[in-house]
Every structure is written in C-alpha cells, then in structure tokens.
Amino acid sequence: MDRIVLAYSGGLDTSVAVHWLADHYNAEVVAVTMDLGQGKELDDIRERALAVGAVRAHVVDVREEFAREYVLPALQAGALYEGKYPLATALGRPLIAKKLVEVAAIEKASMIAHGCTGKGNDQVRIDVSARALSPTIRVVAPAREWGMTRPDEFEYARVHDIPVPMSIESPYSTDTNLWGRSIECGVLEDPWSEPPDDIYGLTKSPTECPDMPAYLEIEFEAGIPTKINGVAMPLTELINSLATIAGSHGVGRIDMVENRLVGIKSREIYEAPAATVLHIAHSELEALVIPKDLERLKHDLGRTYADLVYNGLWFTQTREAIDAFVAKVQELVNGTTRIKLYRGDCHVVGRKSSNALYETALATYDEGDQFDHAAAEGFIKIWGLPVEISAQKSLRHSEANVGTTEKSLDKD
Ligand code: ARG
After folding, report:
1. Residue-level pLDDT at 400
2. Domain range summary for the chain, segments of one domain joined by +
3. pLDDT confidence of residue 405
4. Residue 225's pLDDT is what?
5. CA 36 to CA 90: how far, in whole Å?
6. Alpha-carbon span 303 to 96, nearest angstrom
7. Given ligand 1 and candidates 117, 172, 175, 269, which is best to mutate, with the most ligand atoms within 8 Å of its CB?
C-alpha cells in the first residue's frame, strides 16, 4: 500500500483531505503538523489527525529553524515583496516542504500532500521546493484536484463521518506564523473597500492604542537582533516580544495589491508587527554603516531576493549566493536603532554604531567643521565637465537650428 505524508493544519480542507487521499490513492495517510509560531493550540492536533483517519500523526516544532534559517536571512537581505510584504507565508513554505520530504523518507512514503488550492502561490512554493529536495517525490494537492466547494466539503465530511471543526467558518483565508499573518478573501477581494476591523488578530486599531508613544532600542550584532531595550533575548522570543509590543501600538498593518506568480493581481492584507519594526530598524542601521555603492547594490539584490522567495525559488543557487553576499555585509551591521511606536506609526528616531561611517566633523555646519570646502570647487569642475560639454553642444545645435529657421523665414 502507498503512503502519503500530508501537511495537516487541522482545518476543514486538510481534515477532509486525509480521507479523500486514502480513498483516491488507496494509501495510508500520515499527518504532519508544523509549529511555525502560528500560536494556535497544537496540543490536541495529533488526536484530531488520528480521529479523521491518519494512521500516524507527527507534530514538529520548527520555530527555531524557521527564525534562524528563513526569517533572519530575509530580514538581513531587506526582503520586502513589492516593497511592502515581509513574506511571512512565503518563507514558511520551503520549510514545510523540507519537513514533508524528511518525514516521507522516514516513513518510506512515495508521496507528500498539502492543502493548497490551484490558484495561489503557496502550491508553487511547496511543489517546487519539494522537487528541489527530492526529484523522485510525488506531490499531491487534493484541493487542486477534487473540485469541491466548501459546502461540498462539509457534505463530504458528513457522509464519511469525518469530525471537522464546526465553528462558524470565517469568510477569510488566513495563514499565521512567527513572522506575520496573511488575510485574504471575502470583502477584502474588493480593493476599494476598507478592511473591517475584525479581520485583525495581531494588531490593535490605531484608535484603540495607548495615547503614549513607546520607545524601543533594538540592538544588532552582525545583523542579528539580539536585545530590546538592553534585554538580551533569543531570536524567536525577541520576535514574539516585538510582535506583542508593536501590535499593541497598531504597528504592522499592510494593505496592498500584489502581483501573484500565477499571473493575477490580488488584494492582500498582512499583519507583521515584528517584521515591520525589524526591517525598519535593520535597514536604518545599515544606512549608517554601509558605503553608498554597497548599499545600492544590496538594495537591488534585496528586491531580487524578495522575488525569489515569493516565487518559490528558495532552494536555488541564486538564493544561496545572495545569502553569502548579504552575510558578508552583515559583518558591519553592529549597533542600535531607536524606534518610536505611536498609534500605528513606526519610525526611527535615533541610530548609533561603532562602525558608523557618519563623521560629525565632516557633516557639521557648526564649529569644528573639517570638510575641505575649497576642494569642492575642483571636484565640481571635473564632476560637471560632461554636463558642461553636452550643454555646449546642444547650445550650438539650437543656435544652428535658429539660424536655419531664420534663413528659411527670410526666404518667404
Ligand atoms: N499572498 C500571500 C503570499 O502569496 C499570502 C498567501 C496566504 N496564504 C494562505 N493560505 N492564506 O505569500
């Protein structure tokens, strides 16, 4: 009998999928649930997986690996898809694929399965990652094949006696992990309509936030955030604490229309309080310590990196090569950024570093100025030389043109 390892979330789709897969592929289904910091109570998920028909159910805590090997490189690369989305969901998918492939090897399963539909980016990320890690594994996506609507799924569950969560189903599709939360569907599909307040789970509405700003000093060592307000914390804990503080100040709500890999534009809402603060804090520190040309190069690569992550190309040489470049740059990124949070706003109010390239003696307009003002004259002369030359050329051009026009007017 074949064996299939299914990524099991405990929701309707994957609960129905256990039975459907066993039935359609004449296989045993092994459920795997990964804790990526979604914060949901995962205690009884094993029992639920077994209750819906899985032969075995594993729960794997991958929070540490997710933070260290996926979230951190993306933060250091400055990876924000289309300048906004910190990629929480997108970063989780290659790790999910990796764990499915690992469990499949242990379980001697020839197939892995997931609950993604045929319309999103997530299916691409999981399928492509799995193929990168195991060219022989077969990936099955029941929700892409079965053609059932949600009511059909409930009916399927009823007919086959599958206990599914009967709570009032949310009209939204959400995905949460340590790095943020994605919210789609329902009224959000109209890009003109303001998201209702009840969709948010990690962030407070700015109108309900404290009327006092909060200040955070975030310290980085070689590009790794290590302390908040002087208190050292392991990465996952630091991210969680930041999410709580920033979320309570309404920071991290993102409303965007994005270009999906599958060719459509979609309206997406994200909540990423910790990611928002850390991206701002990290890039501001880089601005202080990284030379101008390197900063520009890194910025361009950051966009490429975000596209790679979004497009499911995590397990590629290109991503690894950019990681190596970014890691080299991070050697410089030591210091502290001071952040002010207030009613949904997050901005930098200070930065310092022992590696700062900022020189007060060169920057000041006050006494102690060591900038060589006289040297500026010669610099400008050479700098502006090509501009001057082409200006003279075009001047001659236009004079010549004026001449021709006048002549032709004269003739008339
Ligand atoms: N559009 C986002 C992305 O592609 C969010 C996907 C959310 N996924 C979900 N299953 N609700 O990364």
Report:
1. 79
2. 2-169, 174-290+332-358, 372-412
3. 55
4. 98
5. 12
6. 23
7. 175
To test the pocket of ligand 1, the residue of 82, 95, 128, 182 to mutate (highest count of ligand atoms within 8 Å of its CB) is: 182
- Of 129, 123, 101, 100, give the one whose Cα is nearest residue 7: 100
Question: What is the value of pTM for the model shown?
Answer: 0.94
Looking at residue 281, its pLDDT comes to 98
Q: What pLDDT was estimated at residue 1?
A: 86
Residue corresponding to tokens 């990681």: 323
Residue 90: CB within 6 Å of ligand 1?
yes
CA distance to 386, 400, 406, 407, 408, per residue, from 411 (Å): 38, 17, 9, 6, 5
| Pairing outcome for strands 224-228 and 231-232 | antiparallel
> Which regions in the chain score pLDDT beneath 50?
none
CATH number of 2-169: 3.40.50.620
Residue from 48, 122, 125, 353 carrying the catalytic annotation: 122
Decide whether any atom of ligand 1 lies within 6 Å of the 173 Cβ. yes
Correct CATH for 174-290+332-358 of 3.30.1370.110, 3.40.720.10, 3.90.1260.10, 3.90.850.10: 3.90.1260.10
How far is residue 94's CA from residue 112's CA, in Å, rounded to a whole number? 13
- 16-30 pLDDT, tens digit per residue, is 999 999 999 999 999
